[in-house]
Design goal:
Number of strands: 11
Distance between the termini: 79 Å
Radius of gyration: 32 Å
Protein name: Membrane protein
Strand content: 5-15%
Shape: elongated
Cofactor: Zn(2+)
Domain M23ase beta-sheet core: 340-441
Keywords: Coiled coil, Hydrolase, Metal-binding, Metalloprotease, Protease, Zinc
Number of helices: 11
Order of helices and strands: HHHHHHHHHHHEEEEEEEEEEE
Coiled coil: 50-122, 260-291
Number of domains: 2
């Protein structure tokens, strides 16, 4: 009776069961000679050459299609930007919305990479576990082989086949209880491995799609920024001369407060910006005194040319200027025995930097150990300093809105090690000042993403 039952199941189980060795992470191990002998002979050279030529033609055609699509997208983008003309409101809206999209996708990419790391780690653990039980797996396979009447076929490669064969093997439990238990354990691990592989494939597909999307959005954003700066340059005839003079003046001072004072006193565009900031601050404070506490809706007017609300009234509303992880906080150690005067955010290479508040640019360029430095006059005696970017895309005297793109991070830290705990990745340094004194920016940041202002 036992021999009859075994024979009944053997034909169904033989080939799929041998998949276990490969699926369990043993693909790199030495297979049995019988399996090696049944390997398919290598295809002829002529066939390989024909396949290679066909594949190459397909790759070239795909490349041509991508290039054509890119050219069409560029033409469409240029037409869209041209249609904006001198409409400042529409341009600002496009800038802020696109920058928000970029940062949103950057966040999704970071989260997906973290999930993939965890999934890959679990898959490695599963493979290690199955590999460590090689002897147990081989013994199960050998027992099933002996139950058959013919030599088992060569190994297949689909994990689903192996899983199905193991489920079939459980039917032998009535005849071989021990074999059933061991097959169940292997099937459970194999089932988890199959599920992990599906999850990993899904995550990788989504990650690839997100990366494509962020590249497209970055291309669009770069075109919008160029148009914004072109319009700015047409309004400011002496822009290049002012920027060059700012760099010269920056070399004459040794600290940030000296730089702010020097810019707003000696540089025409920065002085005008400071004057506008002072006037706007008075108006905003008067308006704030008459109204209730402002909310995010106060920032919706994209045509504004002065801060929507007084900086002091913006507590709990402002977004961090870059996606990243806080590695140093205000008041903590700066690593050399001093106290941190701002916060440091470790970001991804190439991350988009946006303004945390409305304000006028009073400095834009390199400064000392800060790398590229951007200083905004937010009115009411408040200044916001952002440092460590690779490229800045706004000019001195320019008014920028909350959430507007102003800079891009590099691939490594641009800030001196005194401000960064990890120089191997980009680090953005942010500092708030009131009447020249650094203050804790903590109360100004929005509590969560839903409360962050996007312009």
């Amino acid at each position: 009776m036992i021999r009859a039952t075994t024979s009944t199941f053997s034909d169904e189980m033989r080939a799929p069961l041998f998949n276990l060795l490969l699926i369990a992470g043993l693909a790199g191990s030495h297979l049995a000679p019988a399996a090696a002998q049944t390997a398919t002979p290598a295809p002829q050279t002529a066939a390989i050459s024909a396949d290679a030529i066909k594949q190459r033609e397909q790759e070239l055609e795909a490349t041509r299609q991508r290039q054509k699509s890119a050219e069409e997208a560029q033409a469409k983008l240029k037409a869209e930007i041209a249609s904006l003309g001198q409409d400042r409101t529409q341009l600002n809206q496009q800038l802020i919305d696109t920058a928000a999209n970029v940062r949103s996708v950057e966040t999704k990419i970071g989260e997906a990479e973290q999930r993939l790391t965890a999934l890959n780690g679990r898959e490695k653990e599963m493979r290690t576990s199955l590999d460590s039980r090689r002897a147990d797996i081989v013994e199960v396979l050998a027992a099933l082989q002996r139950a058959g009447r013919r030599t088992p076929p060569a190994l297949l490669v689909r994990p689903e086949d192996a899983l199905q064969s193991l489920r079939t093997a459980m039917l032998l439990g009535a005849v071989v209880p021990e074999l059933r238990g061991r097959a169940e354990r292997i099937a459970s691990e194999l089932g988890e491995l199959v599920a992990l592989r599906k999850n990993i494939a899904t995550e990788r597909d989504q990650l690839a799609a997100d990366r494509d999307k962020v590249r497209n959005d970055q291309t669009r954003l770069a075109a919008l920024v160029d148009e914004r700066q072109r319009q700015q340059a047409s309004r400011e005839k002496d822009l290049d001369a002012e920027n060059a003079r700012a760099i010269t003046l920056s070399r004459q001072v040794g600290d940030l407060q000296g730089l702010i004072t020097k810019m707003e006193q000696d540089l025409q565009s920065a002085a005008k910006a400071a004057e506008k900031a002072a006037e706007a601050a008075k108006q905003a404070e008067a308006k704030a005194a008459a109204n209730a506490k402002p909310g995010p809706a106060a920032f919706k007017d994209r045509s504004r040319t002065s801060p929507a609300i007084a900086f002091a009234s913006a507590k709990g509303l402002l977004p961090l200027p870059v996606n990243g992880t806080k590695i140093r906080d205000f008041g903590g150690s700066d690593g050399v025995g001093g106290v941190q005067k701002g916060i440091s955010l470790a970001s991804r290479p190439g991350s988009q930097v946006t303004t945390p508040c409305d304000g006028w640019v009073v400095y834009s360029g390199p400064f000392r150990s800060y790398g590229q430095l951007l200083i905004l006059n937010a009115g009411g005696g408040y200044h916001v300093l952002i440092a460590g970017m690779e490229r800045i895309s706004v000019n001195i005297g320019q008014f920028v809105l909350t959430g507007e793109p102003v800079a891009t991070m590099g691939s490594t830290s641009q800030v001196a090690s005194i401000l960064a705990t990890n120089a191997s990745q980009p680090v953005l340094y942010v500092e708030f000042r009131k009447d020249g004194t650094p203050i804790d920016p903590g109360p100004w940041w929005a509590a969560n993403e839903g409360e962050k202002v996007r312009g």
